[in-house]
Each structure stands twice: as C-alpha cells, then as structure tokens.
Design goal:
259 residues, mainly alpha
Length: 259
C-alpha cells in the first residue's frame, strides 16, 4: 500500500504539471521509477500504460475548454504514433541513454529561447500544419526511448515557433492519448513476439503503475481550466522555466550526480 500511495502522489503532481504546461508527466514518473530500480524499458512501458488513462482525461478537459487546434492535431497524432512505435521497438532492443545528451541540450536551448520570447512579448503566429509531421515523428520517438520526451519536445517547439501556449499545450496533450495507446501496444507486441526478453519486471510494479493512474486521473480534469485561465506571458515563462529545470535534472542524472 505504501508503494501505491507514493506513486499516487507522484502521479497527481506529475499530471498537474503536465496538464497545465504540456510536459513532465512522463519525465517525472519515469525518473521516479528508474530511481527505485525499474529497468528503462519497463519504466517506459509502465508510464505509457498509465498515460492511456491520464491523457484521455486530460484531453477531454482541454477539448471542453477549447484549447485544441484541430488543424494541427491529426498530422501531429499520426506522426507521433509512427515515431513512438519505432522508439518502443528500439528501446526494447538497445539502451536508450545514447541519445539522451542531445535531447537534454535541445531542451535547454529551447527553454532559453522560450524565456527570451516571453520577455520580448513576441506576437502569436499561425503555425503551418506541415511542421507537425516531422515534429511529431521526432517527439514520439524520443518519448518512447526516453520515457517522456513528447511534451518537452513538441510543446516547447510549438510555443517557440509562436503558437499560442494554451493551444499548443491542449493540442499536444490531446495527441498524446493516441501516442500512449500506440506505444503501449508496441510494448505488448515486443513482449509477445519475443523481442523484449526482460519484461518480467512488469508484474512486480503493478502497485506503482496503479498509483500513477489513480493520481493522474485525479489531477487531469483540471488541466484545461488551468491552461485556459493562466495569462499567456505567465504560461510562456512557466514552459521555458520548466524546460530548463527538466534539462538540468536529466543532466545531473546523466552525470551521475542524481540517482
């Protein structure tokens, strides 16, 4: 029961941040799972299994509060699913830390750029739908490999490109539901086909996954309201600041300073 309550709190806090700012559920949840000794592929599979439920609730909240740009959603979701399935296949066969330094550097640079944009109050621009295809492909791949790269990569890029923060966050959160379903299915396929031979640990972490789901479901319905009510400049500063914090945290993990 202690494990369930711990991860219920983790899931609640992670989803509250993710739903409001479009990132961090996967990164926070995966980091905690890895810290308690869960293998990378098992941690990613567990988080994405939990996200099937939490992203559905979060997407419903963003749709209700009209935070979704439907023009960008379909190409983003399709590309994200393709990239996510590829990333899940790769992660179950190799170690995902190889590309992590590049992801951390990208997040840090994007965080600095978004903070600069917020300080200069640059006007919102209409984003071309063609950009979401390549962006979704990369974001989906990094999400599966890193256990939480979708929001930091995709939300930050859309905000940095000039998309209204609340619509970038709402669109990315809604597309993430399809990504979570696809990546979870890819992990199941890898397990059934024998490609993933180290999946035995999944059954040992049912309480943790259950806690992530329960905590995330409690926080998810408030996602759309928070993104809608917070002023644009404050939301932009929050996205940029969170990116720098995530990049710094993952950098310290990679350097061995943090477990």
């Amino acid at each position: 029961m202690d494990t369930f309550l711990l991860f219920l709190m983790v899931g609640f806090l992670a989803q509250a941040v993710d739903g409001a700012l479009g990132m961090a559920y996967g990164v926070i949840s995966s980091s905690v799972l890895l810290a308690v000794g869960v293998p990378p592929a098992t941690a990613s599979a567990s988080v994405h299994g939990a996200e099937v439920f939490t992203t559905a609730a979060s997407a419903g909240s963003h749709i209700w509060h009209r935070n979704v740009d439907w023009r960008l959603l379909l190409p983003l979701a399709i590309a994200g699913v393709i990239g996510g399935c590829l990333g899940a296949y790769v992660l179950t066969g190799i170690e995902g830390d190889v590309i992590k330094p590049f992801v951390i550097a990208y997040l840090a640079l994007m965080g600095l750029y978004i903070l600069w944009r917020a300080g200069h109050d640059i006007r919102i621009r209409r984003i071309s739908s063609w950009i979401t295809g390549p962006l979704g492909l990369v974001g989906g791949f990094l999400d599966a490999v890193g256990g939480g790269g979708w929001g930091p990569t995709v939300s930050s890029t859309l905000v940095g490109a000039g998309q209204e923060p609340r619509r970038a966050i709402g669109t990315v959160n809604t597309a993430e539901f399809f990504l979570a379903v696809a990546i979870s299915a890819a992990f199941v396929w890898a397990l059934m086909s024998g490609h993933w031979r180290d999946a035995d640990a999944l059954q040992n972490h049912a309480a943790a996954v259950g806690g992530l789901v329960a905590g995330g479901l409690v926080a998810a319905p408030f996602a759309g309201l928070i993104a809608k009510r917070v002023p644009r400049r404050a939301l932009t500063y929050a996205v940029g600041g969170l990116l720098l914090a995530l990049a710094g945290f993952q950098g310290l993990q990679l350097a061995g300073v943090l477990a």
